[in-house]
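Trying the structure run again after the queue cleared.
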Amino acid sequence: MTITLTQSPATPTNGAVTVSVSSSTSVKTAKWAAGIKTVDEVLTSGTDITGNSFTVSVNGTYTVAVMDNDGRREIKTITVGNIDKTPPAKVQNLSAVYSSAGQKITVTWTNPADADFAGSVLRWKKGAGSETEVLRSKTDTSYEITGISPDNSEYTISLTAKDELGNESEKESVTVRSTLYAEVTAISLDRTHLDTIMTNRSVAVTVTGSNFNTLSSLLVQVTDGHTSESPVTATIDAAHNTATATVTAPVPASPTEAGTAYTVQAIVNSATPAQATANFIVSAPAAVKEIILSPAQIKFGSASNVSVKVKGANFDIRGETKIKLLNSAGQEVSASTVTVAPSVGNASEFTASVPLPAESGVFTVALYFDGKKDAKTADVQLYDDPVITKVSIPRAGISYAGNKLPVMIIGKNFKAPSISAADFSGTGATFANFKVVSDTKATAEVSCPYTAGEHTVTVNCKNANKTGTISVQDYSGSYVPGEIVLADGTRVTKEDYTAVDPSNPPIAVICGRNSYGAPCGIALHKSTSSLSWAKDKTTGDGTKFEGIVCTPSVTGNGAAASATFTGDKGGSDNWDYICSVDPEGTANAAVNYPAFDWVNTYNETYKSKLGSARPAWYMPSIAELCEVYKNREAINASLSKINGLDGTYADASLGTSWTQYWSSSQHSSLNDNAWLADFGSGYLHSKYKTLNYNLCCIAGF
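Done. Tokens:
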């Protein structure tokens, strides 16, 4: 049995389509249903076909099922796609102007840009009278209604657009009065939406009407309903019954996302406000609320682009829009930037396709409106097999043997979909507590060996591996606080130090031991000004950096001399940890992390006084800072000795009363606080990261 389905008409239509059904055998039952269905579904719940046809009014696929007299069943589908009931867009800029001298109404408009636009229908009536209908071609943009006496009657003119199938748009209407006097019938604006930060706040106003030759003046004024701006005198073009002016959009005191509405009104002969008005709004700038990536995780090499859907507000005024991919350092990825035209999307959403980089990693999708980066971002992960590039373990003293040393593992693809902490392992020593911090960083603990020397260890993740070194030394009886460290690594007491040798200058003073029993030296200069730990309202300001939390057992006066500590006691890797959490912010440390930037640039700042040495300076943890405090007298004595020999090589002291130093340690419960110590009273407390305090830096020796 064969079923044949045909439709009529097959050409585009805005009406219904009839589907005719024929069968090669006699038909006992025939039914149809919308969508793709099974023969059982159609015969059970479909609609009976009478007269060998059925009618549909919506595009779609339809299924027909037939059973013949022998019980054989057959099914057939047909797709109807020629029904077009969508009207064209409305006409724009409809205007009607009455001329008492010519006794006519001139109507003008702008046609829609729809490809199937075929013409317009103009309808006009006087008062409550009957309408006169006039058909206009697709090229017409004006029409004159003649024989209109100046009897002060009101005329209503409407215009609709039609397409080739006869679909008609919503109408646009305008009224005009046939008066001997000047009348404003419409006000149009070149801008109807501005934001609070636009530097160009000019709005061009065009006023149209009738009998402008009788006007003595015309003022244009902006008001929000409560406060009116100073009126602006319009330039009148009486021959064309138009007037123009430029007004300035105010900035509302309390801008909102929805915006403040302002009304533009015309004041005829400086006395009478016209009924016709126009409106614009001033809102908060375009803002991103959500960035949706499809997909957010992509296997490296499997795709060339990622789809980016941006949701937010006021995108109709977003201006030049760029979507950029930023690498872990916050730098723009080459050939990844996409410019999104203002016409793409709508006021609350737009989409774009962004090219992916030529390497794996986690990349930040960032939006820029007129060159200004939006605060909202999203991450796309282009993952591959794990790679380990560095394994760092702090030096330790033999006295620390048997205890746990922190291990920092640097690489990438640590957060690929198939990777977890369970995939990490270590050999050469006893490893434990592997944790994946970010796509580029993992941590672990390793047991400190009981024998002095350089101990090679290996960290593995899947097929990736990298060696590191546990350096254990017997520091007993040496590295006494106050000893002066020279550029070649040798040490000398302050008593024995008698002259500065520029070829082997002093670079540090031993300040104590770190938490792992290894000696540390403090740099010979403190910061010349107070600096903030993090810039206000940045990631660093509001983030709780879990991996660098260190908590003293006591706080307040004298606590720096007696406190014990829990958490991350070593500060040597704290900056690396912050970088792994906030790669974009730390890429511009001078702005976002001023205190850390001072430490990071110490070698460059004082390179002429360091000889060949370039120590790995870091901001001390609060535990290490308290160690410096406890040895401050010995340190200050050595600083004073060097300063007395040549003041360009060392400060005279660390300071005393009210000299407070930042540590690199995060507070455990206050995200926006970090720890500091007062070197006068030993006062131990936390403060907002955005406040300015002194800096010192230390290094292992």
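The first strand starts at residue 3 and ends at 8. Worth checking whether this holds up in the mutant runs.
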